[in-house]
Each structure stands twice: as C-alpha cells, then as structure tokens.
C-alpha cells in the first residue's frame, strides 16, 4: 500500500493477523498451511501477482511469498486502495467480534472505521496510516535506534569491562587453574564468578543508568565482550581460553575462512590487562600479543 511501485518479500512465521493473533477458520488444513494461504490472500487483495517459494534454510517454516508485479494498471490505484480498506476492516471486525466474548467493546476496537470502508483513501497515507489504515496500527519509525550496546562509546565499554574483570579477580581468595605443559606447572588466576546482580551492585549509578537504556543492559555488554567474559545461568565468569573446544574439522568452509581472516586482527585483552597475562601461548591465542603481531 506504500506505493504502486512497491515490491515485497515475506517469510511468514508467527500466526498473526492485522490486529492480533490469527484465528483459524478451517480444520481440514494444518495451521501453517491455512496461515500461508491467508498471507497469500493479502497479497492478492492488494493487487499483486503472488509467487510462492520454499527457501533452503534449516527451518520448518521456510515457505516465502514474493510480490514483484501488480495485477492492475497504475490508474486504478485509488480503486484498489478502497478494496484494501474494506479487506482490512473486515479482518479487524472479525477479530473484534471474537474478542467480545472476553469483554472487548466492538466500537472501541474498531474505532468506527467499519462504517468508513467506502471512504476515499487519505491524500497523505504516510501521515495518517495509524488512524486511517487500521485502528490501533502504529507503523515502525523510519529510523530504528540501535540499543544492543553496540553503539556505546568504546572508552565507556572498555572501562566497564576492566571494572568487572577486576571485580571478579578480587572478589575472593584467588583461584588458580593448573596447566601442565612440557612438565612445567603454570598457574593462571581465573578469579571468582559473581551473579549479574552482584556485579551490578558494584557499578556506579551513572554507569547503570546508561546501561538500562540498552536492551539487555549489563548482560548484553558482557556477552558482546566474549573474549573476556562468559555468562552462564546468570553468573559472570572470566573466560579461560584453554578450556575452549578446538575448532571442528567439519566446520563449514565459510566459517573457517572468517575465523582465519579474523586471526590476530585484535589485541589480546588478557595480554594487556590480566595480572598473569594470557593463559595461552602467543602461537595458540587467536588475538595479538602486542601490536607487532597485529595483522
């Protein structure tokens, strides 16, 4: 409905209608097939030649639809838009009728638009979509804010990582992991493990306030820095790279190539900040032990 030149690709997954959960109408088809037919119907009603394809992905829901061309000339766009309005209103009214069983008011749910199915489409559809296209519909903003801690300043992230690492190293009696190689006994302090709540209690208010504006907050930031930390069952550990599983020989070629390309392209955090240095020798560590090793 955005424009006559619009094309689309959709991979149906969760069973949702325009205004809530999709309500089944047939028992002879599987729920998935019935929902696929509904999604295809939406494309047909909107005036598209709808093509169906099956993606080669490891998922049980891999049927997709593509709309690349219209079934009507551009001159009939206003007429088709009226048809779309009627279809949307019929779907939202059907949901409201069902919802009345649990106390929803049809008039409030529909917003009175059911009587306006034959009205002319708005001149500026993008401005009035939320009120005219469908009751209660709120389109996504044109700019979506990144809130997965990836846009936080690097110096802020580095400071939090260093503070949390020092907290784990000094949380209790130092624990040492023994590593027997070539007959020598080397010790490396892995520190304690603390719950996310305990870690948060040791951070200042300004840092916590900044993290709360991000999805996942502190946990997401620590998981993003997987070179240093391991977060398991709500507890934070300093990662010991000696315990990491060696790369599988059956690893896909693409992943093997990406791993090889990333080798020694970043500095080793442990080599720089850990009191015992890195737990791995330089030739075995995927990160650079000093700027001279950087690729």
UniProtKB/TrEMBL annotation:
<dbReference type="GO" id="GO:0141101">
    <property type="term" value="F:tRNA(Ser) (uridine(44)-2'-O-)-methyltransferase activity"/>
</dbReference>
<keyword id="KW-0863">Zinc-finger</keyword>
<keyword id="KW-0819">tRNA processing</keyword>
<keyword id="KW-0949">S-adenosyl-L-methionine</keyword>
<feature type="zinc finger region" description="C3H1-type">
    <location>
        <begin position="262"/>
        <end position="292"/>
    </location>
</feature>
<dbReference type="GO" id="GO:0005737">
    <property type="term" value="C:cytoplasm"/>
</dbReference>
<comment type="similarity">
    <text>Belongs to the TRM44 family.</text>
</comment>
<comment type="function">
    <text>Adenosyl-L-methionine (AdoMet)-dependent tRNA (uracil-O(2)-)-methyltransferase.</text>
</comment>
<feature type="domain" description="C3H1-type">
    <location>
        <begin position="262"/>
        <end position="292"/>
    </location>
</feature>
<dbReference type="GO" id="GO:0008270">
    <property type="term" value="F:zinc ion binding"/>
</dbReference>
<keyword id="KW-0963">Cytoplasm</keyword>
<keyword id="KW-0808">Transferase</keyword>
<dbReference type="GO" id="GO:0030488">
    <property type="term" value="P:tRNA methylation"/>
</dbReference>
<feature type="region of interest" description="Disordered">
    <location>
        <begin position="116"/>
        <end position="137"/>
    </location>
</feature>
<keyword id="KW-0862">Zinc</keyword>
<keyword id="KW-0489">Methyltransferase</keyword>
<protein>
    <recommendedName>
        <fullName>tRNA (uracil-O(2)-)-methyltransferase</fullName>
        <ecNumber>2.1.1.211</ecNumber>
    </recommendedName>
</protein>
<keyword id="KW-0479">Metal-binding</keyword>
<dbReference type="InterPro" id="IPR011671">
    <property type="entry name" value="tRNA_uracil_MeTrfase"/>
</dbReference>
<dbReference type="InterPro" id="IPR000571">
    <property type="entry name" value="Znf_CCCH"/>
</dbReference>
């Amino acid at each position: 409905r955005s424009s006559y030149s619009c094309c689309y690709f959709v991979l149906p997954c969760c069973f949702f209608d325009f205004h809530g959960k999709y309500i089944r109408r047939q028992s002879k088809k599987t729920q998935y097939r019935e929902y696929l037919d509904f999604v295809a119907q939406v494309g047909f009603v909107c005036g598209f030649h709808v093509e169906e394809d099956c993606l080669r992905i490891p998922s049980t829901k891999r049927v997709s639809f593509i709309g690349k061309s219209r079934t009507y000339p551009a001159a009939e766009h206003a007429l088709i838009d009226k048809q779309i309005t009627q279809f949307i209103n019929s779907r939202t009214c059907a949901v409201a009728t069902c919802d009345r069983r649990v106390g929803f008011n049809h008039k409030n749910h529909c917003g009175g638009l059911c009587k306006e199915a034959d009205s002319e489409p708005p001149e500026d559809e993008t401005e009035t979509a939320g009120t005219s296209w469908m009751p209660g519909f709120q389109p996504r903003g044109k700019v979506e804010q990144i809130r997965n801690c990836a846009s936080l300043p690097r110096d802020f992230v580095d400071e939090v990582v260093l503070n949390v690492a020092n907290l784990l190293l000094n949380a209790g009696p130092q624990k040492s992991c023994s590593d027997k190689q070539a007959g020598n006994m080397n010790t490396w302090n892995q520190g304690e493990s603390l719950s996310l709540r305990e870690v948060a209690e040791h951070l200042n208010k300004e840092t916590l306030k900044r993290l709360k504006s991000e999805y996942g907050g502190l946990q997401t930031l620590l998981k993003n820095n997987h070179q240093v930390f391991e977060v398991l069952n709500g507890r934070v550990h300093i990662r010991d790279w000696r315990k990491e599983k060696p790369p599988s020989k059956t690893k896909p070629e693409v992943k093997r190539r990406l791993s090889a390309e990333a080798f020694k392209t970043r500095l080793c955090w442990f080599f720089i900040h850990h009191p015992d240095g890195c737990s791995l020798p330089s030739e075995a560590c995927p990160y650079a032990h000093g700027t001279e090793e950087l690729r």
